[in-house]
Amino acid sequence: MNNYPIIGVMTQPTTSTQGDCKGDCLYLAASYVKYIEAAGARVVPINYYAKQDELDNLFNSLNGFLFVGGGSSFPSSAQYIYDKTIAANEAGDFSPLWGTCMGFQWVCLAATNNQLKLDPSDGTQMDAENYSIPLDFRTSNIPSSKLFGDNIVPQNILNILSTQNVTMNNHHYGIWTDHFEQTSDLNNNYNILSTNKDRSGKEFVSTIEHNKYPIFGSQWHPEKNTFEWQMNQDGRPYEAIDHTYDAMQISQYTANFFVQQSRKSSHKFSKQEIETASLIYNYRSF
C-alpha cells in the first residue's frame, strides 16, 4: 500500500472576476480538495486544457483521478485520462478514476468515445437540481460490487443511503436507465449500482462502477454533505444538502473508499521538487 497517495483533480473554466481571474481562469471547488484530503490523500489540479505530453507525465506520477461536478464541456483531456486509465488497468497497472455529477457524465461520454448524447435530448432538462434523495439500489449488482458489496461496506452505510435524503443531486442532464442499458459501450462495461427518479418521475442512473476496472461514477455529490454550507441572505440554506451525522458518514465512506483505491497505485513523481511544485498548495484560494 502507498500511504502517500496523490489524486489528480480536474479543473474547469470560469468567467469569474474574483482574485486575478479577470473573467478567464480555471478553477477547482475547494470542497473536492477537502473531500480528498479528509481521506488521507493530497491533490494536484489538472489543467482542463492539458496536452498529451503533460497528461502522460502526470498520469505516471499520480495515484488516481477525480472528474468533478460543474457545467463545462467535455474536454479532450478527460477523454485522454479515461483512455489512459483503461489502458493502464488492462496492462495490470492499477489506476482508479471517479466521476461526480458532471464527472459522472464525463465517464459515460468517455466510455463511448464522446458519442453518447446526454439525456434529455429533446431540448428539455431533468428536474433534478437541488434535490437530495435516497438511492434506489440495483439489488442484483450490490453483493458483488467493489463499492457497495458484501464484506466491503458497513450495513449502516447501505441503510442510510437507501432510506435517507443524503445523496444531493444538482444536475439538468444525465442518462436515463433505459438509454444506459441500450448503449453497448456502457451496458457491456459498467454495472448500474443505483438509479433514481427526478421530480417528474423519470428514472436516471445515479451510481455506476466498471465491471472489471476501478472506475466509478456518482451522479450525486458525496462531497457536498461535509463541505458546502452556503446560505442565502435570509438565512436559509442555498442548497438542499443534508448535514446530519449520517450524511457525514456517507461523504466519509465514499472518500475513504476512493482514496483507499488510490493507495493501491505505485505511481510517483520522479523528483520531490516536481511533486512539491505540482500540489494544490501552490495555488491561491478565494
Compact summary:
31% of the residues lie in helices and 20% in strands. The chain is an alpha/beta fold and 286 residues long. The longest helix has 18 residues.
Comma- or semicolon-separated keywords:
286 residues, alpha/beta, 10 helices, single chain, two-stranded antiparallel ribbon, eight-stranded mixed beta sheet
Number of separate strands: 12
Shape: globular
Give the terminus-to-terminus CA distance. Answer: 35 Å
Count of helices?
Answer: 10
Q: What share of the residues lie within helices?
A: 25-40%
Ranges where pLDDT stays below 50 over 5 or more residues in a row are none
Rg, rounded, reads 18 Å
Mean pLDDT: 96
Largest sheet, spatial ordering of strands: 4-1-5-6-12-11-10-8
**Percent in strands:** 15-25%
Query: In sequence order, what are the helices and strands, one letter per element?
Result: EEEHEHEHEHEEHEHHEEEHHH
Provide the structure class. Answer: alpha/beta
Largest sheet descriptor: 8 strands, mixed
